[in-house]
Write a structure and sequence with these properties.
Structural class: alpha+beta
Shape: elongated
Largest sheet: 5 strands, mixed
Helix content: 40-55%
Protein name: Adenine DNA glycosylase
Number of strands: 7
Function: Adenine glycosylase active on G-A mispairs. MutY also corrects error-prone DNA synthesis past GO lesions which are due to the oxidatively damaged form of guanine: 7,8-dihydro-8-oxoguanine (8-oxo-dGTP).
InterPro entries: A/G_AdeGlyc_MutY, DNA_glycosylase, HhH-GPD_domain, HhH_base_excis_C, HhH_motif, MIG/MutY, MutY_C, NUDIX_hydrolase-like_dom_sf
Strand content: 5-15%
Keywords: 4Fe-4S, DNA damage, DNA repair, Glycosidase, Hydrolase, Iron, Iron-sulfur, Metal-binding
Pfam families: HHH, HhH-GPD, NUDIX_4
Number of helices: 15
Length: 344
């Protein structure tokens, strides 16, 4: 009771005014929760506003072309979220007549909706007493109760969810879930939290034991794979270029890119030049080739580091199926390629 009362009092005084907090509309809450997975609020908010303007209802999103959805998502990363969002909108619009499931168990059946998102929608839209457990909740509870369970373990989520459920006032689950997440996001932050001004500074076990910087415990290290991408930007006599769609499973599925030569390590001009001459994605005579960036751009994804070089290839004649610089801007690209296009 003391924990809950202090938490809610803090929340009511410090909470951010965010558009998805001023509604119980499950479509808007679902949209915000999918966008905020792996994304900071400051980064996600402009995307949320753009999406709700372009697609004010689930029917609008369902009717949209996937490329438009991906274009609006461009820069948010984890593009499978956008593809799943689109497919789920189509399912809800056509199979459920636009009505979202009204409970945690059924929400969990939706594509792209995991335990956290289902709990958020169920509690915020329907006031169902189900706890949300994200990184913020792990951190707040681990510190307050001095829990040393490795949060990378599959069993950790159930342990923390059980504890959160015990603490939650069953008649006010929405405000409890919002409060504990907001407290972790704004005050009980990962590094150097201001424990001196914390409302829990007389009752937090980690603070008493000087263990704040040691919790939560996360032992499993993610193995990072390095990949080496060489993008070939063709330019013919009319300055038209070629792009291709990534249709294989994996990163950036259904986004566009320039013709790609992937290598096992970072390669020099001679290697890439020889590789280009052996490729069959164009039939034009090569006039010249140069590196657009001498040093690789390192684009970090959650499980991969991409070392990217762009190469400008001037060719004679007219490239078949070539597109102009203006047409390029209509397609959804990974943000690293989009940024290259904008600056060249």
């Amino acid at each position: 009771m003391v924990f809950y009362n202090l938490l809610i009092a803090w929340y009511l005084q410090n909470k951010r005014d965010l558009p998805w907090r001023n509604t119980t509309n499950p479509y808007l809450i679902w949209l915000s929760e999918i966008m905020l997975q792996q994304t900071r609020v400051a980064q996600g908010l402009p995307y949320f506003l753009s999406f709700t303007e372009a697609f004010p209802t689930v029917f609008d999103l369902a009717k949209a072309d996937e490329e438009k959805v991906l274009k609006l998502w461009q820069g948010l990363g984890y593009y499978s979220r956008a593809r799943n969002l689109h497919k789920t909108a189509q399912y809800i619009a056509t199979e459920l007549n636009g009505v979202f499931p009204d409970n945690y168990k059924e929400l969990l059946q939706l594509k792209g909706v995991g335990e956290y998102t289902a709990a958020a929608i169920a509690s915020f839209s329907y006031n169902e007493a189900v706890p949300v457990v994200d990184g913020n909740v792990f951190r707040v509870l681990a510190r307050y109760f001095d829990i040393e369970t490795d949060i990378a373990l599959a069993s950790a989520k159930k342990e923390f969810a059980t504890l959160a459920f015990e603490l939650m006032p069953k008649d006010r689950p929405a405000i409890f879930n919002q409060a504990i997440m907001e407290f972790g996001a704004l005050h009980c932050v990962p590094k150097n939290p201001d424990c001196g001004s914390c409302v829990f500074n007389t009752s937090c076990a980690a603070l008493q034991k000087k263990k704040v910087d040691q919790l939560p415990v996360k032992l499993k290290k993610l193995k990072i794979k390095n990949r080496y991408f060489n993008y070939i930007m063709l330019s013919d006599a009319e300055e038209k270029t070629l792009i291709q769609k990534r249709t294989s499973k994996g990163i950036w599925h259904n986004l566009y890119e320039f013709p790609l030569i992937e290598t096992d390590k970072e390669e020099d001009f001679e290697f890439v030049s020889n590789a280009v001459q052996q490729e069959s994605f164009f039939a034009n005579p090569i006039i010249s080739m140069r590196a657009c960036n001498e040093k690789s751009i390192v684009h970090k994804l959650s499980h991969q580091h991409l070392h990217i070089k762009f190469w400008k290839l001037n060719v004679g004649g007219e490239v078949e199926n070539g597109i102009t610089k203006e047409e390029l801007k209509q397609f959804p690209f990974p943000i690293v390629i989009h940024n290259f296009i904008e600056s060249n």
